[in-house]
Amino acid sequence: MSTLSPIENPQVLKSIQKEAIHIASYLSSCSPLYSSANSKISHHCQLMSRHVERLKYRHEILFTGLARKFDLECQQIATTTTHTNLTISNVFCQKLLHMYNYLFADKQITWGRIITLYSFAQFLIQRIQKQDAEQAQRIGLLTGQYVASRLAKWIMNNGGWESLENFTDDADKMNDTYHTLFAFAITCLGISLFVLFLVVR
């Protein structure tokens, strides 16, 4: 009897996709989702959380600047358009999706970039959770679904979530991620509102 390799196994992919959403939910709530009976899954969440905290600490100034720019431009777009369904909440999620696409626009997927994606999502969630819990939940869901739909195959083909155990977020490995974020900060967030409006329509 032949067996499917991980790259061909839809069950493995489904499991990785499910875990991507669980990790986003864990980071959104900052509380354990699983009992001790699910310690293996919970370990992935906690491991990602440690990477996320280190990255947020290292790039707090950059994340803060990005978040403030997000807020400002979302409000400007929502208040200057006549589109009745274009709320600040919708604009925010569309711009966040735009950022995620930018991070992987060169088709290069790395653990550093995946960690960055989760890190910025949690940074945004922590900023708005008290004022707008519903929007914070939407950010977590959008992030988990993005990883599940766009990045799960790469994760599966690179050792699964277990390989995150071997990732070391040293300066060399995170260098491309930092430059990607910096480029995004000085280019995409500075483009005209007209272009951003085309993105979110």
Automatic annotation (TrEMBL):
Recorded GO CC terms: endomembrane system; mitochondrial outer membrane
GO annotation terms (biological process): extrinsic apoptotic signaling pathway in absence of ligand; intrinsic apoptotic signaling pathway in response to DNA damage; regulation of apoptotic process; release of cytochrome c from mitochondria
SMART domains in UniProt: BCL
Keyword Transmembrane helix among UniProt keywords: yes
Gene3D superfamilies named in the record: Blc2-like
GO molecular function: BH domain binding
Swiss-Prot/TrEMBL keywords: Apoptosis, Membrane, Transmembrane, Transmembrane helix
All residue ranges annotated as the Bcl-2 Bcl-2 homology region 1-3 domain in the record: 48-161
Primary location: membrane
SUPFAM superfamilies named among the record's database cross-references: Bcl-2 inhibitors of programmed cell death (SSF56854)
Compartment list: Endomembrane system
TM region(s), chain numbering: 181-200
Keyword Chaperone among UniProt keywords: no
Protein family: Belongs to the Bcl-2 family.
Protein name: Bcl-2 Bcl-2 homology region 1-3 domain-containing protein
Species this chain originates from: Didymodactylos carnosus
